[in-house]
Amino acid sequence: MIITESDDRLREHLMLTRGYQWVQGAQGDPFALLLRSDNQDPDALRVRVREQGPVFHSITGTWVTGDHALGSRILADPGCGPRHPGVEGPQEHLITYATSTQRFCHVLALEDAFLNLDRAACERLAMTAEAAMGPEALEPYTKDARGFCEQRLEDLRGAVDLMSDYAAPTAAALVGKLLGLGQDDRDRFTALARGLAPVLDSTVCPPSATSARHMSAALSATRELLSARLEERRQERQNDLLSAFTRTASEEDALALAMVTSVAGVEVLANLVANTMAALLERPEQWELVRRDPGMAGQAVEETLRHDPPVRLHSLITQHEVELAGETVPADSHVVVVVDAANRDPGVCSDPDTFDLTRTAAPHLTLPVSLPVGLAGRVARFGATAAVGALAVRRPTVTATEPPTRHLRSPVVGRVARQPVSL
Q1: Which among 396, 327, 417 is positioned nearest to 55, based on CA atoms?
Q2: Quick one: pLDDT at residue 254?
Q3: CATH value of 2-422 in 3.30.1490.20, 1.10.10.10, 1.10.357.30, 1.10.630.10
């Protein structure tokens, strides 16, 4: 695996990948600019992606779409999946000075994150996830989750960073609580979550070598922690998600679902809270709706999933030759659905650039259950609804003091770095 290469070899791979993406972005390719993820205006890039037509072949070698109908078809098509056809083991492409081609579909494999599960595995896990984390399954936890989030607001007053002081630690602690981790384990889980934050982005955008090593170590430690607790639940089940996973899933599938929930679920949840509050605080009339009726927190979260998604692209590989909008795409090709462009496709949503809680729910492609990241969508929605609702109840006068800033090298999540507010 690339992550187990020497420091020099790992650094070479990451620096060359970054260099290739930078040069290709300098040529004006909108997808390369998305991957570069520097200070480009995301709204402008979103428009440029859609202007290329239903699908275009980027100079990076990737086939890209921002069309909602085509994106929906790709995500549902078994002919497109996270893994390369016929390739067992880690999905990765080591880039060196001697490499003649570059592929950006699996910059870092990080197999312990279970983000490269094939379609068959996702279908199996979707059934377990629905039983354990579907709306009916999570409903009994609603009051407790809201109270948990409200309690975390008790000591937060005045000038705070909504992301680092509330959204991120609350996301990790709440997911840990739902999984069934004890207090000491939750504290460790929350600390590990900080190291896991860049994992989703690192699938297509190279982190620093130091960050890559930290992610690998955090993944190993998280896997070790969850494996031990899953084994305990097999011996004595409790009223928690880990126990629910063990009831219907194999040992490997239970671990996969626990890891996806921990890695993707925490990071998506944290940024979904941050994005939802940013959208609401930028539009006082929308925040007023939630203040008056905290039950509308769920609608705010769902509109954010469409308008400002915490997952901005889905990366897949064609399992065989496919036809996309009249283009013949060979087997083993990289295909990307640009989610935030597709979600604002005017063909499926009226006035798509307007954030409106009162609109009839519009279809979006942010968290499809056909992909591993979508399996974590249930807990992300649930947790974000609780966290936003808690703010409406306990801190209804919250105001933004500066616009949020986002991390560079974050093309998938658009991770919020700072979100100064006054509580």
Answers
A1: 327
A2: 96
A3: 1.10.630.10
